[in-house]
Amino acid sequence: MSLARRRTIPKRRTSVVIWKCSQYHFDSQMPIIMGILNVTPDSFSDGGSYAGVEEACAAARKMVDEGALIIDVGGESTRPGASPVSVEEELARVLDVVRQLASEGICVSVDTRHAEVAKACIDAGAAIINDVTGFRDPAMAEVAKNSDAGLVLMHMKGDDPRTMQDEPIYTDVVSEVANYLLSGAHQLEGLGVDRSRICLDPGPGFGKTAKQTIELMRNFQEFAHLGYPLMVAVSRKSYIGYAYKIDEPKQRDDASAAEALLACELGASVVRTHNVALTAASVEENLRPYALLGIGSNVPLVADEGEEREGKIALLNQAIADMCMLPDSQIIDVSSFYESEPAYYEDQDTFVNAVVLLRTGLPPQELLHYLQAIENSLGRIREKKNGPRTCDIDILDYQGYVCDHEILTLPHPLLCERDFVVKPLLELLPHHVLANGKEVLLDEVTVGKAWKCSGQN
After folding, report:
1. Nearest alpha-carbon partner for 150 in 90, 206, 107, 202
2. What pLDDT is recorded for position 15?
3. Cα–Cα distance measured from residue 189 to residue 84, given in angstroms and rounded to the nearest whole number
4. pLDDT tier at 49 (50, 70, 90 boundaries)?
5. What pLDDT, on a 0 to 100 scale, did the predictor assign at position 185?
6. How far is residue 38 CA from its own chain's centroid?
7. Of 200, 230, 235, 220, whose CA–CA distance to 79 is shortest?
8. 272 is a catalytic site residue
9. For the chain: N or C, fewer Cβ within 10 A?
10. Environment class of residue 152 by beta-carbon count within 10 Å: exposed (0-12), middle (13-18) or buried (19+)?
């Protein structure tokens, strides 16, 4: 049995965290490696590498052996300035390769912007359509609608790869790309495409300068707020050459793997790469699990009369600053602040709450020890259960970890009933599924009604 089948998720699991690609179902909370197979004479770093179908298929099998779960087959270069090819020529390059790999049980993606090519490849067994033009062509959207393939919806500024780099201008590249992707996903869903089939790709290097792409990549967590699987497709891109001072594309593999790892820590789940072995090893060896932390306060250390809420926010900001000093850990994202009614013990002041997304190499109980030390340093008093407190930090969920110990239960047993936890958590990770397989849903909350603190978007 191929590696591509061995690590897929059984169909009986229907949570929205699963990226559905025809018969292949992938857990998007774990990195999914997509190997690049360009059967073109002019791709920017590997054009002309494969002389025929068997040579291309052999390269694909090698990538599967190295850890690729998906092979992305492309027959037209989309590098800036590349000459377009006819549909007939593109099909001549890719169709036999797609058919052969699919017949071997390998999950095949077709990298194309042409509806005729996409449909022919789906009919030949491809399970994913990777469209750099974001399904803007109504014919391509129709192919997507009438299939059960996974869909990679990418952002590209402009309509043509040949001119996409002609002075791309953005007011805010991150928000503009996010809005485009969300709008495109909603349009597909409006046609009847199930959201579980959609993966988003911000399109680094496509209609973006190197500096714009770097800004995009350093804020990759913002795309996780959209609630879809995310692809990171940076392998050997020109912005890496700019940032790392590496002119030759084939020499950019180490830097590409480092950029892919960073994007995975910020929320990417599909990694498109030329060098599968290096990238798979980098992610497997270095990607830290995530922890979701709930923080709250209703006793400010210092606050003038009428400024109690600001004092609580200041205290939580101090707790967040202290978390920045945790060993082998990095704060990835912080929700808005939410004010909430007290829960359980109701005869007390309102709380201010937030959720922090952390990547950490600390195991759960050791992490808890550090967090309790932060609580103590900020004057935490534990005299009354659910009573007033300067700072409360709970581990809500820890990736891949379920336990019921005397000092720590994970996921947090009361998480899903607390409005002041669920709202900020879903702000960061819409449709989040806990380590025990339970989806976090807003309609299940029963206590602690919460609302965003005024002055926040």
Report:
1. 107
2. 40
3. 30
4. low
5. 98
6. 24
7. 235
8. yes
9. C
10. buried
Q: Find out whether 218 and 205 touch, Cβ atoms under 8 Å.
A: no
Question: Quick one: average pLDDT of 173-191?
Answer: 97
Catalytically annotated residue among 237, 288, 309, 389:
237
Contact yes or no for 200/225 (Cβ under 8 A) = no
Q: How, if at all, do strands 128-131 and 150-154 pair?
A: parallel
Of the candidates 20, 79, 272, 418, the residue annotated as catalytic is 272
If pLDDT is split at 50, 70 and 90, which confidence band does 16 have? Answer: very low
d(CA 66, CA 283): 13
How many angstroms separate the CA atoms of 299 and 34, rounded? 49
Task: Enter the pTM of the model.
Answer: 0.90
Q: What are 333's strand-pairing partners?
A: 357
Q: What is the pLDDT of residues 370-390, one digit of tens each?
A: 999 999 999 887 777 877 889
Confidence of residue 251 (pLDDT cuts 50, 70, 90): very high
What is the mean predicted confidence (pLDDT) over 234-246? Answer: 96
Q: What is the mean pLDDT of residues 309-322?
A: 94
- Between strands 290-297 and 392-398, the pairing is antiparallel
Which carries the bigger pLDDT value, residue 3 or residue 205? 205
Phi and psi torsions of 9, nearest 5°: -100, 135
Whether the per-residue pLDDT at 391 is higher than 50: the answer is yes
Specify the length of the chain in residues: 457
208 a catalytic residue: no
Neighbour-count burial for 98-130, b at 16+ CB within 10 Å, e otherwise: bbbbbeeebbbbbbbbbbebbbbbbebbbbbbb
For residue 77, the model assigns a pLDDT of 78
3-state secondary structure the chain: CCHHHHCCCCCCCCCCCEEEECCEEEECCCCEEEEEEECCCCCCCCCCCCCCHHHHHHHHHHHHHHCCCEEEEECCCCCCCCCCCCHHHHHHHHHHHHHHHHHCCCEEEEECCCHHHHHHHHHCCCCEEEECCCCCCHHHHHHHHCCCCEEEEECCCCCCCCCCCCCCCCCCHHHHHHHHHHHHHHHHHHCCCCHHHEEEECCCCCCCCHHHHHHHHHCCHHHHCCCCCEEECCCCCHHHHHHHCCCCHHHCHHHHHHHHHHHHHCCCCEEEECCHHHHHHHHHHHCCCEEEEEEEECCCCCCCCCCHHHHHHHHHHHHHHHHCCCCCEEEEEECCCEEECCCCCCCCCCEEEEEEEEEECCCHHHHHHHHHHHHHHCCCCCCCCCCCCCCEEEEEEECCECEECCCCEECCCCHHHEHHHHHHHHHHCCCCECCCCCECCHHHCCECCEEECCCCC
